[in-house]
Design brief:
Length: about 190
């Protein structure tokens, strides 16, 4: 059979439809992932601000774990340098005990539990030389957790670990112990 331009055009149209279906499926999957992030009770709610002193809120997102890394712009309308992030969550403590918390961050990080400061390491620093730790006795149940992070320049990264009670050492704070605050307290 002789191949004609018309025949190739029909094939191209067939590929075009296939690509359109693939793009629609990818968009649907992305939307489902986004919705799951917001509707899932696990994780934390993060607000990203322009400036390292929380000058202007620019973006709200969900974090599944308290581990973050960004080489470029963290959100639209926020530059790569000089931004901050305020994270709200509820910490579920399975058993009354003394718990150890440790952070690594590039650049500054602060942690509060039930409104009380736990770690304050607010300065420009290298990720691997930034380690800070603190201990606190916590009762079983839910506690308000607040994390503030800022990036002065360059790549941004932080990690929050905890251990104690039934929690093994070097456990990144995440599900099932990290829960989003109620809807009314997320903003």
């Amino acid at each position: 059979m002789k191949t004609t331009w018309r025949h190739i055009g029909i094939q191209a149209a067939g590929w075009g439809r296939t690509l359109a279906w693939l793009a629609a499926a990818a968009l649907l999957a992305r939307t489902a992932f986004w919705l799951y992030g917001w509707l899932s009770p696990c994780g934390a709610v993060a607000t990203i601000y322009r400036g390292e002193a929380f000058q202007k809120a620019r973006w709200i997102c969900c974090l599944r774990r308290l581990e973050y890394g960004c080489e470029g712009r963290p959100a639209p309308f926020v530059s790569r340098d000089r931004y901050s992030m305020r994270i709200k969550a509820r910490l579920y403590v399975p058993k009354t005990a003394v718990y150890d918390f440790a952070t690594l961050s590039d650049d500054g990080i602060r942690i509060r539990i039930d409104g009380q400061p736990l770690i304050d390491n607010w300065r420009e620093q290298d990720f691997y030389r930034s380690g800070r730790s603190a201990s606190r006795e916590l009762s079983a149940g839910f506690h308000e957790l607040g994390v503030e992070f800022c990036n002065f320049r360059g790549a941004a990264r932080f990690r929050v670990e905890w251990c104690g009670g039934p929690i093994p050492p070097r456990t990144v704070l995440g599900p099932p112990y990290l829960c989003k605050p109620p809807w009314k307290d997320r903003w």
